[in-house]
Design brief:
By secondary structure, this protein is an alpha+beta fold. The chain has a single domain, classed as Electron Transport, Fmn-binding Protein, Chain A (Pnp Oxidase, Chain A), CATH 2.30.110.10. The protein contains 3 helices and 12 strands; from the N terminus they run αβββββαβαββββββ. The protein has helices at 12-21, 65-73, 86-92, and strands spanning 25-26, 28-32, 39-43, 46-51, 54-61, 75-80, 109-111, 117-119, 124-136, 139-151, 158-161, 164-167. The strands form 3 sheets. The protein has a 7-stranded antiparallel β-sheet. It has a 3-stranded antiparallel β-sheet with strand order 1-11-12, with no helix packed on it. It is globular and about 50 Å long. The structure holds flavin mononucleotide. Flavin mononucleotide binds next to β3 and β5. GO terms for molecular function: FMN binding; riboflavin reductase (NADPH) activity. Keywords: Oxidoreductase. Residues 20-167 form the Flavin reductase like domain. InterPro entries: Flavin_Rdtase-like_dom, NADH-dep_flavin_reductase, Split_barrel_FMN-bd.
């Protein structure tokens, strides 16, 4: 290959991490559970899967509290964050020192059709019931059947790129 950095097979995990750092993504918080049992996690591993039926997927670390909450509740909500929600992203990425239900404190939430909490000022909140779960190494791929969607089309997304949060640039 002619690109400036090449990671041969023994270093391929490092190479993948470096490559993924340079993928610009929307930032979501995946939530599940109710009241004191609610949990959340900042995640970029989110995509739609099909429209027939309407399904999405999220990849969640099996070792964390959010994984247990999604498994127990059988639901999750994908909260797509807007550009001024870096504090929400930081809270659910474990950057503030808060854990568990305390990570929801200071932010406004509404209960969705599935029962999962939706962030009141999200760009989009996609409420799902768990349709399937596939183990993939350290993570589970949760497939969600979409039950309810709320969007605010006037908001612009929070992006993650190269270990930092960014705003969307001007349209080209
Ligand atoms: C920008 C960003 C994206 C992330 N994406 C994911 C993801 O898609 N899936 C995941 O399991 N963890 C992801 N993480 C890591 C979790 O947010 C983090 O490990 C978790 O909040 C730590 O929670 P814990 O201390 O309860 O394990 C991401 C972190 C950041 C900062």
């Amino acid at each position: 290959m002619t690109m400036p950095m090449l990671y041969p097979r023994p270093d391929v995990a490092e190479g993948l991490k470096a490559a993924m750092r340079h993928v610009a993504s929307s930032v979501t918080v995946i939530t599940a559970g109710r009241g004191a049992a609610r949990r959340g996690i900042t995640a970029t591993a989110f995509t739609s899967v099909t429209m027939e039926p309407p399904t999405v997927l999220v990849c969640i670390n099996r070792g964390g509290a959010a994984h247990e909450a999604i498994t127990r509740a059988g639901h999750f909500c994908v909260n797509v964050l807007c550009e001024d929600a870096t504090d929400v992203a930081a809270s659910f990425a474990g950057m503030t020192g808060k854990t568990g239900a305390d990570q929801f404190e200071g932010f406004e939430w509404v209960e969705t059709a599935s029962g999962a909490p939706a962030y009141a000022y999200a760009q989009a909140a996609i409420s799902c019931s768990v349709a399937a779960c596939h183990v993939a190494g350290s993570h589970s791929i949760f497939i969600g059947q979409v039950e309810e969607v709320a969007i605010d089309p006037d908001r612009t997304p929070l992006l993650h790129f190269n270990r930092g949060f960014h705003r969307l640039g001007a349209r080209r």
